[in-house]
């Protein structure tokens, strides 16, 4: 009976988002309160449980997500993203243009949130398409595959960062493992898949062609790449230093301090403020306005993360987590596959990758300790599942259709199939990595 009530709680969440078209944050709040009452939590404790869950999860994540948004916005506004894209185009040449687009999406997609990366880079793909007289979908798909993978797999993007916090995983290790899986996933769903899409007719509007900055206004390629990748370098580097470091070592406290994801992102943002801003004669008021706009862009993401934390806390406080654990343990299925499957089903129902990942985390997080599974790989498994088969209820589906100006049928054959490839190949990569770590 308890298990059915949990499923009913999730069904309420899905129906509120899909059928009632309610805001996901409000949907999470209503579903969390309904779950608490149905599962027997005393009425006077429901609100406290919701508040505790929201605060606990946001406390771990707000620095990472907000500073990540600010960094991504500055990379875009300064022209660093344009410089990286242009350099990779020249480096790879026309013959390997799809590889250039894939690597552009990977490098620029790390600091940029998905929607920002889409709006910024897709017009560049159209410009390349017109310049080399190549099909727009063929050129653009590797870029979109890379943006999707970074969005679903790699911190500091909201969903993987939130999953790291929920599962008490190591952000540096998750990022390292994520790269090992992301690169082959992008190659298969991007440059290898793209040639099958050459016959799809697309007529991108002239409005969506990029209006690049003049060359002399762009930062140098070294400055652009180093600044965009600094969070990755710091997270992986400090994690490597802490692997065999005795906690009683005199340097341990400082290394663990600099390994904290919030500190890493703050350092990266401060460096970017200098390297892409002050050093290039941008006014401090202009930089701060850029950061203010960036926080507005991710305000709803923060609220959705908070709502997911509330649902998780209700499941924990009602004691239902133990019952879920006992039920899941009777399933003859690998924990990583089970987590991927739950996430994929919610993703197909709800449409949002972030909501799908965080909802699954709310179910599984309280029982990770009882599962024989690497928490870093669990993050990546859920990340892969959260990208499964984007269709009519996903905003990304419609952004792709309208920007590329393709039919619904061709959108399903290209965009939806690419997202499905990312999800399936990502899971295979996680399972292979699980054999060795």
Provide an overview of this structure:
The protein has helices at residues 2-18, 24-38, 43-77, 80-92, 97-109, 114-132, 136-153, 158-167, 171-192, 221-242, 252-259, 261-277, 284-297, 299-317, 320-328, 335-350, 353-364, 375-385, 395-404, 408-434. By secondary structure, it is mainly α. It has one domain (2-434). It has 20 helices and no strands. It is found in: Cell membrane. The chain crosses the membrane at residues 30-47, 54-76, 96-122, 134-154, 174-197, 218-241, 253-278, 298-316, 336-365, 377-400, 420-436.
Give me the Rg, rounded.
22 Å
The helix content, as a percent range, equals over 70%
Low-confidence spans? none
**From the helix content, strand content and strand pairing, which structural class follows?**
mainly alpha
Q: How many domain units? A: 1
Number of helices: 20
Mean pLDDT rating = 87
What summary fits the major beta sheet? Answer: none
Name the helix and strand elements from N-terminus to C-terminus, one letter apiece: HHHHHHHHHHHHHHHHHHHH
- Beta strands, count: 0
How far apart the termini lie comes to: 37 Å
Strand content: under 5%
Instruction: Write down the overall geometry.
Output: globular
InterPro entries: Glcn_transporter (IPR003474)
Keywords: Cell membrane, Membrane, Transmembrane, Transmembrane helix, Transport
Main location: membrane
Pfam families: GntP_permease
């Amino acid at each position: 009976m308890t298990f059915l009530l949990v499923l009913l709680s999730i069904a309420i969440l899905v129906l509120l988002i899909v059928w009632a078209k309610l805001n996901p944050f409000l949907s999470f709040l209503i579903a969390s309160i309904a779950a608490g009452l149905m599962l027997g939590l005393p009425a006077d404790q429901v609100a406290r449980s919701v508040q505790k869950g929201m605060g606990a999860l946001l406390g771990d994540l707000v620095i990472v997500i907000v500073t990540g948004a600010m960094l991504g916005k500055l990379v875009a506004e300064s022209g660093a993203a344009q410089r990286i894209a242009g350099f990779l185009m020249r480096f790879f040449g026309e013959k390997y243009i799809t590889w250039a687009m894939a690597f552009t999406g990977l490098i620029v997609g790390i600091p940029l949130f998905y929607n920002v990366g889409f709006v910024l880079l897709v017009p560049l793909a159209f410009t390349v398409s017109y310049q080399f007289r190549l099909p727009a979908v063929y050129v653009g798909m590797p870029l979109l595959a890379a943006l999707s993978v970074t969005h679903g797999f790699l911190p500091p993007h909201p969903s993987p960062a939130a999953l790291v916090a929920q599962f008490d995983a190591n952000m540096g290790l998750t990022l390292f493992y994520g790269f090992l899986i992301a690169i082959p996933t992008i190659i298969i769903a991007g440059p290898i898949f793209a040639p099958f899409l050459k016959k799809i007719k697309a007529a991108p509007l002239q409005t969506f062609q990029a209006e690049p900055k003049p060359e002399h206004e762009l930062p140098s390629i070294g400055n652009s790449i180093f600044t965009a990748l600094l969070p990755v370098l710091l997270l992986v580097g400090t994690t490597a230093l802490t692997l065999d470091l005795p906690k009683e070592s005199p340097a341990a406290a400082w290394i663990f301090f600099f390994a904290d994801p919030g500190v890493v992102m703050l350092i990266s943002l401060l460096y970017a403020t200098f390297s892409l801003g002050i050093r290039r004669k941008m006014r401090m008021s202009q930089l701060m306005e850029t950061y203010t706009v960036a926080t507005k862009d991710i305000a709803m993401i923060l609220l959705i993360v908070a709502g997911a934390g509330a649902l998780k806390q209700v499941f924990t406080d009602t004691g239902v987590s133990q019952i879920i654990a006992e039920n899941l343990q009777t399933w003859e299925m690998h924990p990583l596959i089970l987590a991927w499957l739950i996430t994929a089903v919610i993703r197909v129902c709800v449409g949002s990758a972030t909501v799908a990942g965080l909802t699954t985390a709310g179910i599984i997080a309280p029982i990770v300790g009882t599962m024989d599974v690497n928490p870093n790989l669990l993050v990546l498994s859920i990340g892969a599942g959260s990208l499964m088969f984007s269709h009519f209820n996903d905003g990304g589906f419609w952004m792709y259709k309208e920007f590329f100006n393709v039919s619904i049928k061709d959108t399903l054959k290209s965009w939806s199939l690419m997202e499905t490839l990312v999800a399936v190949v990502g899971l295979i990569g996680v399972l292979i990595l699980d054999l060795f770590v």
